[in-house]
Design brief:
Helix content: 40-55%
Structural class: alpha+beta
Number of strands: 8
Strand order of the largest sheet: 1-2-3-4-5-6
Strand content: 5-15%
Order of helices and strands: EEEEEEHHHHHHHEHHHHE
Distance between the termini: 69 Å
Number of domains: 3
Radius of gyration: 27 Å
Number of helices: 11
């Protein structure tokens, strides 16, 4: 005879059940509930309390024809989306997991601190749940039970919203800006020279995303500043808000006089807020503007 175990955790409308066959998740209220079963199928149950009416629908997976490549899934189009699923499906209890993963990938101590904070929140969450008086079915009982249950739900919602808000830019930083929106393969990518240029372009995209999500880190890494000593490879970006004229001319392959006009316009404005502003105030023609746009980045002063 084999052994089996089953553990269920409930917080408000969310329930996570762990069994020998895997994890299942469900969310909903009395009369309506959506469940993701351990076999991957999604089950929707609708009922009218007190009437006996009940309707259940279960999704089924359609096998791919033999020899046909499977269609790209949402996981393939959006790498890192599991960050949000962990937070949502665990009702915030496992919010520390994606932050710990990001800390390991990016080697950042501040993310370890965040992971520790969310782990502490999970402990508080468990304490609140254990202190709540419950009946044999796991429902809160009494005035104290209702109050503690309400606090637990509100706490879980706060953790979920905060974690998801912080994970939006973090996911892009960990998995790159092309998550879900990759550039199409270049027809000449097999050529080593072309491949090197495409790799540099990918590095520029990555560095731009990093600068957008974490401007302070971008400044520390000297993104867009080839005139400064640095170790991070940004693919050849040039910061038009800070770099000197000589570095701008070299990075964008433009005449020194044109780079000087960009610096003069920057000095007049204080800083550029958009590349279009650069092109207008420095009187840059369309052909040159396209070349500059490929390498330019604007970091705030």
């Amino acid at each position: 005879m084999g052994f089996s175990s089953r553990k269920s955790f409930k917080a408000g409308p969310f329930r996570v059940t762990a069994s020998k066959s895997g994890l299942s998740y469900s969310a909903g209220t009395k009369g309506a509930r959506v469940t993701r079963r351990t076999d991957g199928r999604v089950q929707t149950t609708l009922s009218v309390p007190g009437t006996g009416f009940r309707h259940t629908a279960t999704s089924s997976s359609t096998p791919q024809p033999t020899g046909e490549a499977p269609a790209p899934t949402g996981w393939q189009r959006r790498p890192g989306f599991w960050y949000f699923l962990v937070v949502l499906l665990s009702a915030g209890m496992f919010s520390a997991v994606p932050f710990a993963h990001a800390a390991a990938r990016l080697q950042r101590k501040d993310l370890l601190v965040r992971a520790g904070c969310y782990a502490g929140a999970a402990v508080v969450f468990g304490v609140l749940s254990s202190l709540t008086p419950k009946d044999p079915k796991g429902n809160a009982v009494g005035a104290v039970g209702n109050v503690l249950s309400g606090i637990t739900v509100l706490f879980a919602i706060a953790v979920i919203v905060t974690a998801c808000y912080q994970l939006v830019p973090l996911r892009r930083e960990v998995f790159g800006p092309a998550a879900g929106a990759d550039r199409p393969p270049h027809p000449a990518a097999a050529d080593p020279v072309v491949a090197a240029r495409l790799a540099a372009r990918a590095r520029r995209d990555e560095a731009r995303a990093l600068a957008q999500n974490d401007p302070v880190l971008a400044r520390d890494l000297h993104i867009g500043r080839p005139d400064l000593s640095r170790e991070y490879d940004d693919g050849g970006l040039i910061d038009l808000n800070h770099a000197p004229a000589g570095a701008i001319a070299a990075a964008c392959s433009i005449e020194p006089a044109l780079a000087e006009s960009i610096v003069a316009a920057r000095r007049e404005l204080g800083s550029f807020s958009s590349l279009d502003e650069v092109f207008v105030f420095a009187r840059i023609e369309d052909g040159t503007a396209a070349l500059i746009r490929e390498y330019a980045i604007l970091l705030a002063k």
